[in-house]
Amino acid sequence: MTTLPTILIADDDRSIRTVLTQALGRSGYQVRTTSSAATLWRWVEDGEGDLVITDVVMPDGNGLDLIPRIKRIRPDLPVLVMSAQSTILTAVQSTQRGAFEYLPKPFDLGELLSVVDRALKQPAMQVPKEGAGAPEEALPLIGRAGSMQEIYRVIARLTTTDLTVMITGESGSGKELVARALHDYGRRRQGPFVAINMAAIPRELIESELFGHERGAFTGATNRHVGRFEQAAGGTLFLDEIGDMPPEAQTRLLRVLQEGEFTTVGGRQPIKANARIVAATHRDLRVLIRSGQFREDLFYRLNVVPIRLPPLRERPGDIALLAQHFLGRAQAEGLPAKTLTPEAMAKLATYRWPGNVRELENLMRRFSALVPQSVITEEIVEAELADRAIHDPAVTPGADAMPDTPQGVERAIERHVARLLGEARDAGEDGVLYDRVLAAFEEPLIRLVLGETRGNQIRAAAMLGLNRNTLRKKIREHDIGVTRRVG
Fold it and tell me: Per-residue pLDDT tens for 289-303?
């Protein structure tokens, strides 16, 4: 008779233990549960269990601290970590200490069952020695939204690799912070982090900046110049705004990625490339490919691991957390201490934030420096946001509180399409406007419907009037993360 696998669960939340016991029991597993880290450790020491699911914070201990001890005596026992402390540090530490997988709370029950199945069929993840990590107050990324949790998990999985990463997201959403997190928590963290912004360098100088040049290579080259690839040797090279790279530099970069070496401008001796590449852009590279402005083969070389950063408006629940973080940082830098009333926090969440996280940080710094009161009220926030709407042509006063009328919706759509039309005209891009307008409205529509159905794709397809396979295809095209939440 085959013995059923036994799952050991340690969590101080009784409802979580009950949900997991029922779900795992229905899936054919035996389950033992406890609220105590000490009891879990005793079971492991006694040789019980085929897999461990543990919370991080328990009354008598920390689940993360148990993982190295478990690995020392039972290296093949897979450990899954669940945590309501859903920060990037939790995700990275879980992976670095040897967890098979990290799942934030509230968790996706279907995903957890899938992870349990994989963990029992595969050897436990082997992870190198733990890195130094960073204190929570110094975390590079802040946010508890589901989209941010998935980014934390991707970063955690990439800490032991040198895979090339492509980060996409609107201006101000934190793309360089993700790149730095990939470096700081990765195995190249002892090497340099070198960044270059393609949009900030004259086109004729980009190749020299990237690859360096020899003395006499061109007029004005009086000395040998070390390029960013050489500067980043042993570390990470962050290519920001890669969509603005000119065609000739794209060709040279592709050759470096293919051959693993490069030559300086005017040089003959090949130099081995020894930098992990992380690229980022706020532009839609697929649109640039269709218009002939970006090489498709280069895109696929760079887009090995895609990470999409959500705009701040897609994670309004993180706004209060970020605002408090930025006020605290401003205070640490010597500015007066400030607090926001709950009403002020709620008002911040109604704003569209076209400048994303960077705009919110700048506003908190201005409040810290210029507002005489120690408590920032709803009226102060409302006046500031109204002033921004007046002076920022990209923001329409009251856009997020627009009257629910066909005429109001039509005017908002016309404004947005007019902006897209202007961008296409200014960039000289023909043949892309129709696709860009469709993408602008299709993606948020699908995201909103999936949010309404809590990730149920069958129900979402029915609401949209789409075939389920068509919906799945569009979810993949727009890199939309879909999670069904329970617990």
Answer: 998 999 999 999 999
Determine if the pTM surpasses 0.70. Answer: no
| Region for 452 from its dihedrals, namely left if φ exceeds 0, alpha if ψ lies in -120 to 50, beta otherwise | alpha
Domains of the chain: 6-138 (3.40.50.2300), 161-308 (3.40.50.300), 312-400 (1.10.8.60), 402-477 (1.10.10.60)
Query: What local confidence, expressed as pLDDT, does residue 395 receive?
Result: 47
Cα–Cα dist 196/120, whole Å: 44
Both structure tokens of 52: 């461990």
> Which residue, chain included where needed, has tokens 């190295």?
68
Q: Using CB atoms within 10 Å of the CB of residue 48, give its burial: 0 to 12 exposed, 13 to 18 middle, 19+ buried.
A: middle
Closest CA to 281 of 293, 265, 263, 269: 293
Provide DSSP, 320-367. Answer: HHHHHHHHHHHHHTTPPP-EE-HHHHHHHTTS--TTHHHHHHHHHHHH
